[in-house]
Write a structure and sequence with these properties.
It is a single chain. By secondary structure, this protein is an all-alpha fold. Helices cover 60% and strands 3% of the residues. The chain is built from 12 helices and 3 strands, in the order E-E-E-H-H-H-H-H-H-H-H-H-H-H-H. Strands 2-1-3 form a 3-stranded antiparallel beta sheet. Strand 1 and strand 2 form a beta hairpin. It is elongated. Keywords: Membrane, Transmembrane, Transmembrane helix.
Length: 308
Amino acid sequence: MTKKRAVTFKPYIKTRYAYEKLRVCRHCQHFTVLWETECSQCGKATLVSIPQRVTSKVKRTMLNERLIALFIGLVGVYFGQSFLQMILSAAAAILLIALLWFVQRRMLPFEVPSEMETLFEQEQPRIIEDIKRNRKLAVAALKDDELLTYEMLREISTLVQNDKIRLQQVVLLQSFVLRKDMDLRVEPLLIDSFDTDLAAYIGEVAKVQRELIKNSSIRYILAYEAHILEMENGVEILSSVAGAAIRLKKYVEAYPEFIRRYARNIPKDRFLRLYRMIQQHPESYWGNLAEEVAVIRRELYEWDSDFQ
């Protein structure tokens, strides 16, 4: 068995929109979703975010429009046949530029999203190819630094979501010692088929960060319960997930039979929480779970003061 490494993840910066992770080089127009300070294609430190690039382009277009208005005004002044006409032309030009600046300022928040949509439509093939290059860089780093590869794949998965990248992350996560203080994820890594590494990962997360075990995770474990039982530590995985599900009453009510099957294997603190939950809410429907909990309590904890 490969010895697991204790690691510390690079802070993962979450963004409101996935595209905010994407940057582009002003020099060679190469796109990247990674955090490098210099472009991996041309080596220049000219990477900017997509909103920066689009906003800059829109502002440059608006500036050109104002310069055209200024030019028209200057032409009017130059060809004015009298001093009055020159003054009127200059005043009209100033008024036009001021009005144009006011309108542009109001339109900027609407022009930027529209221009961004156009950019993504036009540059989609290039973006796809450049993200593929990002992934090749991540795979190339695997031999020397598994942590770096995971962190790169984590960034790539913000924009590219498929089972292959999800499983690559899971396999790498299984080579690390998981801790409560780590920025872990479960639901974004779920796939549509059974995978032993993913099942084992969910079981480990259920021990260190129970709050990450939600409906989708429990349903995945339930869907492949028979396969998990065939694993060497299958019962331990299922028991860990059942114990994590006890965190919320709604999960216990939704999956009482699943929790009943592994109630005998969960730690005392989780069983105590389950016991008290059932005692405090006799009106809820627990199925056969309430009876099983009563039996386990008599057999294992009858003289335990915590259960009195």
